[in-house]
Structure to design on (296 residues):
C-alpha cells in the first residue's frame, strides 16, 4: 500500500492538469452546441466550473473541489455531454483516491474516511475505495465494528470484480485486528486461563469473518497451552506450521509450543526433538535451556 500511495502522489500533479485542456477543447469542438444558444451557455458555465474545481484541486482544497466537480457533473449531464461527464467523474474518483491515500499516510483517518467514502459514491465497483474507507474506520476509536463490516464489503466487491489483491488486503486487515487482540491478551508473563480465554474469544470471532492463518493458529495454540489443553495446542501448532511459509527462524515458535506441550504430556523424547527445531531466533535461548536441563 505504501508503494501505491507514493506512486499516486507522484503522478497526481500531472494527472490533474491534463483534463482541463482536454475537456475545454472537446466542448469547444462540438458543432451542435454552437448552434444552440442555451446549450452553449451551459457549456461555458461547465467549462468555468470545471476549471475552478481543478484549480481548487491543485491547491489541495477538497472542500471546494468536490462541490465544484459535482456541479460540473450536473451541468455536463444537463448539456448531454456524456464524454465530459465521464471525464469529470474520473477526476472525482482519482482525487478521492489520491487524497484518501495521503490522509492515511498522514494518519488523518477522519479525512481519509471522507475521501474514500466520496470515491465509493462515484466508483461503487472499486474495491480499493471501500478498503480504504475500512482502513480509515478501523484506526478511529469506536468504529471497529463499522470497519469490519466495511472491510467485508471490500472483500465482496473485490471478489465480484476479480480484484484479488484488494480482497487479500482486506482479509488480512480483518485478521490483523483479531490476532492483535489475541497477542495483547497473551503478552503477559506466564499467561493464565483468563488471558487464554480472552485470546481464544478474539480468534473465534475472527473466524466469523475470515479463515484462520498460520499466525492466528500460533496464538490459538499458545492460548490452548496456557489453558492446559496440551493435545489441542500440539495439533493446532502443527496445523499452523503446515500453513507457515517462511524461514526456519520464523517457524521456531510453532516448534516451541509443540515441544512445551509434549513435555507437559510426558513425551520427553518427542519434546527434545522439537526443541532442537525451535532453537533459532527469539526462541533459541529458551529452547537451549530446555535442551540443557531436560534433554541431557
Amino acid at each position: 500500500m505504501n508503494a501505491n500511495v507514493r506512486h499516486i502522489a507522484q503522478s497526481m500533479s500531472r494527472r490533474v492538469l491534463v483534463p482541463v485542456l482536454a475537456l475545454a477543447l472537446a466542448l469547444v469542438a462540438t458543432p451542435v452546441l454552437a448552434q444552440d444558444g442555451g446549450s452553449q451557455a451551459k457549456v461555458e458555465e461547465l467549462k468555468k466550473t470545471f476549471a475552478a474545481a481543478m484549480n481548487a484541486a491543485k491547491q489541495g482544497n477538497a472542500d471546494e473541489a468536490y462541490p465544484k466537480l459535482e456541479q460540473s457533473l450536473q451541468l455536463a449531464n444537463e448539456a448531454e455531454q456524456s464524454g465530459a461527464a465521464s471525464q469529470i467523474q474520473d477526476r472525482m474518483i482519482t482525487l478521492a483516491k489520491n487524497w484518501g491515500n495521503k490522509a492515511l499516510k498522514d494518519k488523518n483517518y477522519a479525512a481519509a474516511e471522507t475521501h474514500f467514502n466520496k470515491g465509493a459514491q462515484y466508483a461503487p465497483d472499486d474495491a480499493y475505495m471501500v478498503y480504504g474507507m475500512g482502513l480509515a474506520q478501523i484506526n478511529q476509536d469506536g468504529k471497529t465494528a463499522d470497519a469490519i463490516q466495511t472491510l467485508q464489503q471490500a472483500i465482496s466487491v473485490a471478489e465480484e470484480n476479480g480484484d484479488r489483491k484488494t480482497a487479500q488486503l482486506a482479509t488480512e486487515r480483518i485478521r490483523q485486528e483479531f490476532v492483535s487482540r489475541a497477542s495483547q491478551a497473551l503478552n503477559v508473563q506466564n499467561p493464565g486461563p483468563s488471558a487464554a480465554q480472552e485470546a481464544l474469544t478474539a480468534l473465534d470471532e475472527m473466524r466469523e469473518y475470515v479463515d484462520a492463518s498460520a499466525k492466528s493458529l500460533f496464538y490459538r495454540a499458545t492460548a490452548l497451552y496456557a489453558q492446559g489443553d496440551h493435545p489441542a495446542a500440539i495439533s493446532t501448532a502443527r496445523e499452523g506450521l503446515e500453513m507457515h511459509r517462511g524461514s526456519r527462524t520464523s517457524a521456531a515458535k510453532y516448534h516451541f509450543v509443540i515441544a512445551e506441550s509434549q513435555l507437559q504430556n510426558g513425551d520427553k523424547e518427542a519434546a527434545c526433538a522439537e526443541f532442537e527445531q525451535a532453537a533459532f531466533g527469539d526462541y533459541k535461548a529458551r529452547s537451549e535451556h530446555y535442551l540443557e536441563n531436560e534433554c541431557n
Q: What stands out?
A: The first helix runs from residue 2 to 28. The chain has a mean pLDDT of 88. The two ends are 49 Å apart (CA to CA).
